[in-house]
Amino acid sequence: VFQEIHNFVQVIVMELCTGGSLFNLLDDPENSYGLPAQEFRLVLEHLTSGIKHLRDNCLVHRDLKPGNIMKFISEDGQTIYKLTDFGAARELKDNQPFDSLYGTEEYLHPDMYERAVLRRSVNTTFTANVDLWSIGVTLFHVATGNLPFRPYGGRKNKAMMHRIITEKAAGVISGSQLSEDGPIEYSSVLPAHCHLSSGLQELVRPLLAGLLEISKQRMWTFDQYFTTVTNILSKKVVHVFYMNKSSSIEVYANQDDVLYNFKEHIKLQTDVQPESQILLLGSEHLEKKVDASTLVRGYPETDVDSPIFLYSTDNNNVIIPNEPELPKFPSFPNSVSVENDVNLAKLGCSVGHECKRRIEKYSRMDRLLKVGVNEFIEMLKYSLIALVEKTKHLGDMTAVVAELSETVSVIGRNTDCSKDMSAISSRLESLKLNVTSGIIEPTYQLHRKFVVDESLNAEWKSAIRDKKCPCKTRSVERAKHLTERLRDSWQHLLRDRATRQLTYNDEQFHALEKIKVAETGKRIKSLLNDDVRPVVAQIAECVADWYKHAQTIYVKVQYLEKDSNSCSHSLAGIHDHIFQIKEDLRNDDGEIQNIGANAQVSPQFSLCQETHNYIRNALTNAQDIGNILRENAELIQLLQQLGQGDDILNSIDHSRL
Predict the structure, then answer these.
(1) Which are the contacts of 323, defined by CB distance < 8 A and separation ≥ 6?
(2) Where is the Protein kinase domain (predicted)?
(3) Which residues of the chain have pLDDT under 50?
(4) pTM (2 d.p.)
């Protein structure tokens, strides 16, 4: 704040904001349908910080709108949105009334609109909370590119505007009249063309509903506004690509959420149940990178180009999502009207930008579908490699337990335990057969086919070999070029409007630019509808055919892993039963004279105890089976040296894995 030397008037000198106003950004054809999600969050954060500073100092702005929010670009390239124009601001404590009228019609609170515009309710007073309504209108404008309440005929239709904003129900965030004397169409959701993700919309919608509340009983306070915005901005954004719907989603999770909550957030946006979700990051299951108790704040960083991939086990189809109907390109009249022509060119430019965004979206979709396929293939390969190791370990352990079983059978062949050992041997033979034919052989077949021969990868590459993918045809670059041509023509017509009076030659060039807008519009629309979207739809069909096969393999691997775990559990049970029989035999051994400090245990039983310990460790900790087999062979040799080796070893099959 400075004071003039001559008349001592105080003036506010602010930084030069070269990025223009927020209104200028929204007026650009590129942002006709609102700002991108990342930019919206930036506006929300900076606007709220500015309002918080004003309230901390008991100030009310009273003219909040996009035109009074400036874009400042710092030296390091960061964007900061700043509040300006404090000509209508004044000191005002919470709930302190005021009766002076300031503001812009479209952003005025209904009570202020009634008094300032319609000249009614002259004795009405207001509080600082009227700024909240202006914030709500501003945020809706930023999110959608349009004002929330629009009567037919615009601001000239003042009575209808008042009716729209005063008759709306709680929770309604927009209302429009599309024809003269037509009905008012209210909505509680953001329009289909809004660029905000569905995850962000779910958070923004209640915020807008609270800010745009006219009932004094339900009207929000600044504390509610600050708390809600802080909650939105504090959430961690996790990017997920849902393969079955070929769609990118943003999960807004609390920092302290865990895996269960994260999967529930995904279910709300995709309808995929948590138990049916396959989540891959870097070709690995997400559960291998984060455990069930890991807080979301500790999750790996993601972005729209490097997301977590989601696959549904309940759905093996893959489709591309439906898009809102593309706005129509305008048709120029033959006559020259600089005002009308520039508006039509701006509309055409706006549609061109929408086409470009969709082409970029389909191009990203094409790339992520292919990455998702490769990630799934790699995950299957890693799973099969691990399963081969697991089944090999299971086969080796089965052989070790079989040797132990035969050893104990020989020791107790003339005892009461012989029947139990016979039953155990039968169970063990059945288990060995199941392990060999039901687990090991199918696992090795899958490993040979999909890891060694890579048939699943070959099948995928064959399916898309002849597809002209957007990334190969440089569709994004072509769309960018066509959009720039549309903008150049629009700028040319803008200069013509500033000239007002056109010479004959100027009129010819003016007509040429109109033709260029029309032709360029046709080209970019054709690029989207004829070249890009159909190809991506074909890619999705190829992914669907491939995923049906890949999902079958995945299910087989899951079953084999389950069977392997079940057999390991059964083997551990058999081993424990054998050990119990061995303990019973030891207690009956004639060498154990009494139980006490001087009791002696026969060496062969001590050696069996050592074998048991080795096997139990291997079953629980997956130790080196080769070492255990060697140790087992040495133990049996020691049994032979102790005098029982001849009887025992003659009964044991020496063939070992």
Answers:
(1) 358
(2) 1-242
(3) 590-602, 604, 622-623, 638-657
(4) 0.85
